[in-house]
Design a protein that fits this description.
Blueprint lengths: L2 E9 L3 H12 L4 E5 L6 H5 L1 H19 L14 H24 L6 E3 L2 E5 L2 E4 L4 E9 L3 E3 L12 E2 L13 E5 L3 H12 L3 E6 L11 H11 L3 E4 L4 E4 L5 E7 L2 E7 L1 E4 L3 E3 L33 E3 L10 H17 L12 E4 L4 E6 L6 E7 L4 H6 L5 E7 L5 E8 L2 H13 L4 H5 L10 H14 L20
Parallel strand pairs: 1-2, 1-6, 2-3, 6-17, 8-15, 9-10, 9-15, 10-11
Antiparallel strand pairs: 4-5, 5-6, 7-16, 12-13, 13-14, 18-19, 19-22, 20-21, 21-22
The protein binds flavin-adenine dinucleotide and nicotinamide-adenine-dinucleotide.
The site of nicotinamide-adenine-dinucleotide has 24 residues, from α5, β10 and β18.
Keywords: FAD, Flavoprotein, NAD, Nucleotide-binding, Oxidoreductase
InterPro entries: FAD/NAD-bd_sf, FAD/NAD-binding_dom, FAD/NAD-linked_Rdtase_dimer_sf, Pyr_nuc-diS_OxRdtase, Pyr_nucl-diS_OxRdtase_dimer
EC number: 1.8.1.4
């Protein structure tokens, strides 16, 4: 039986695993990166990038439809489904090949194509029979779509993010189960591309948001483009002609609808099954997941680290990459490890309007400033005046703590707020910065002014508070 001895073994060559390997090797460790496919990361192949490519197509169609609002008459756009899907795949393949080149450029002996499972905290068994002995092991095995029982035996009528981008043509109609970021981003874009879309979720709110004005504004905006059935328990059956029938009860009434395809977007689960974690010596919770420290990514006091979607804490790309880097450094220097400060939360959903969550959720010591983009000058000029943004600050001192944003270009506003929170800024500090006119950023001033007024933060003498042209009574 072949045996490989290394300092750091990494299970999974996704974003987190590649970052971990890079960092551990840079720190002088002998590394081994194990993956059965080396498919070029979830992000590039079936996640962030192909979904944003499809969204770009949907938004192009939407802008054509909206042109009439500006006096630019174009008529209904003709969507060439195979061409849309071919562009998605062409660019997606280009992104994937970039990652694959990075992998091909790794030094000889660093990669091994295999599936790994634990034998002990420092020993892995590969499915080709190789034993790997490592001083430290990093679990970077990612996550996979969860398919709830009613949808699991329906064959190829059910699609997920892993199969959607392989379709040769757009379907005529699609039922989407799950109104989280994945379901909503794709549902809206498919509707914009002329697909008849209905979204089902057992929750009353969209995108995991709490009840409140941002959520209500998001729901109102998306309902104008999509059919929604919330607080329902959908079931489905496959029909003889290969289509699917979804049935559910809504407001006490039994209902049914037929679709060509059913997209299941009901969350993702960490790929921990099959790792034989019970042999890793780690303490596991009821779901079989190990406890870990968010600053070090270490599982207990063991030589095992867990990063990216595999730990389920912050299942987004920049966090996977950062966690990989932290764990790579710590695994290389194990048992001498360091705790790293983590980023302020920054999460974006690329629907239109965008939704973003920044920093901490509000609590009893939070003061809330709010802006409704329905009345915001630049948003009105561009015909994108939808959404409500809330900015959170400490009631005692006005220090910014978080935000829930629904609005045009909220992806950019969220970055500004996140960076200011990381700088320790107060609402008054941010208000005292230049705001160009007319911009969407000016909308934030409305919310910041409310915070300052409410807690009596001094406003700079040089600032004029008059309403700006285009803004109507929004503060
Ligand atoms: C449709 C979609 C859209 C998304 N959009 C965004 C977005 O816009 N922005 C954003 O920030 N995030 C987005 N995400 C989330 C983001 O893609 C993930 O958080 C990120 O890709 C996770 O990276 P990872 O390295 O943890 O996992 P992955 O990239 O999935 O890597 C895991 C690797 O582990 C391997 N593996 C699994 N089991 C084993 C084993 N036993 N042995 C060896 N190898 C194994 C797999 O083959 C895989 O290569 C999106 C996700 C999806 C699904
Ligand atoms: N822009 C982004 O960053 C982005 C985009 C897409 C996906 N992602 C990532 O992908 C992951 C998965 O996203 P997601 O939206 O699938 O997960 P999610 O858990 O956020 O949402 C799943 C939704 O499905 C609903 N649901 C679950 N089971 C159901 C059932 N049986 N019937 C009806 N509804 C049901 C839930 O109530 C929830 O609203 C997340 O970790 C997310 O971070 C990120």
């Amino acid at each position: 039986m072949a045996e490989i001895h290394v300092d750091v073994a990494i299970i999974g060559a996704g974003t987190a695993g590649l970052a971990a390997e890079r960092k551990a090797r840079a720190e002088g460790a002998r590394t081994l990166l194990i993956d059965p496919y080396f498919a070029g990361t979830t992000c590039a192949s079936v996640g962030c990038m192909p979904s944003k490519l499809l969204i770009a197509a949907g938004n192009a169609a939407h802008n054509v439809r909206k042109a009439g609002e500006f006096g630019v008459e174009t008529g209904e756009p003709r969507i060439d489904g195979p061409k849309v899907m071919a562009r998605v795949r062409r660019l997606r393949d280009d992104f994937v090949s970039g990652v694959k080149k990075q992998i091909a450029d790794l030094p000889d002996g660093v990669t091994v194509k295999a599936t790994a499972r634990f034998v002990s905290p420092t020993e892995l068994s590969l499915d080709d029979g190789t034993q790997v002995l490592a001083k430290a092991i990093i679990i970077a095995a990612g996550s996979s779509p969860v398919i709830p029982a009613p949808f699991e035996d329906l064959g190829d009528v059910v699609i997920t993010n892993e199969t959607l981008f392989e379709l040769e043509d757009l379907p005529q109609s699609i039922g989407v189960i799950g109104a989280g970021p994945l379901g909503l981003e794709l549902a809206q874009t498919l509707a914009r591309l002329g697909v008849q879309v209905e979204v089902f979720d057992r929750s009353a709110q969209l995108a995991g948001l709490d009840e409140g004005e941002p959520e209500t504004s998001l729901r109102r905006a998306l309902k104008a483009e999509l059919g929604f059935h919330l607080e329902v328990e959908p079931e489905a059956r496959r029909n003889d002609d290969g289509s699917v029938t979804v049935s559910w009860t809504e407001n006490g009434e039994a209902r049914q609808a037929h679709f060509e395809k059913l997209m299941v977007a009901t969350g993702r689960a960490a790929n921990l099954e099959g790792l034989d974690l019970e042999k890793s010596g780690l303490q596991l919770d009821d779901n079989g997941a190990p406890a870990f420290d968010k600053g070090t990514l270490q599982c207990g006091q063991s030589p095992v680290f867990i990063v990216g979607d595999a730990n389920g804490a912050r299942p987004i790309l920049h966090e996977a990459s950062t966690e990989g880097t932290i764990a790579g450094a710590n695994a290389a220097s194990y048992p001498d490890i360091k705790s790293f400060e983590r980023f302020t939360r920054l999460q974006v959903m690329f629907t239109e309007p965008n939704m973003a969550k920044v920093g901490a959720d509000p609590d009893e010591d939070t003061i809330v400033g709010r802006v409704d983009f329905a009345d915001q000058g630049r948003a009105r000029a561009m015909g994108v005046n939808q959404g409500v943004c809330e900015i959170y600050a400490k009631a005692k001192c006005g220090a910014l703590t978080g935000a829930t944003l629904v609005g045009p270009d909220a992806e950019h506003l969220a970055h500004l707020l996140c960076w200011e929170i990381e700088n320790g800024s107060k609402a008054s500090d941010l208000l005292n910065k230049p705001f160009y006119h007319p911009t969407l950023e000016e909308g934030l001033k409305t919310a910041l002014k409310q915070i300052c007024q409410e807690i009596g933060l001094p406003k700079p003498d040089s600032r004029d508070d008059a309403e700006l042209p285009g803004d109507f009574g929004s503060d």
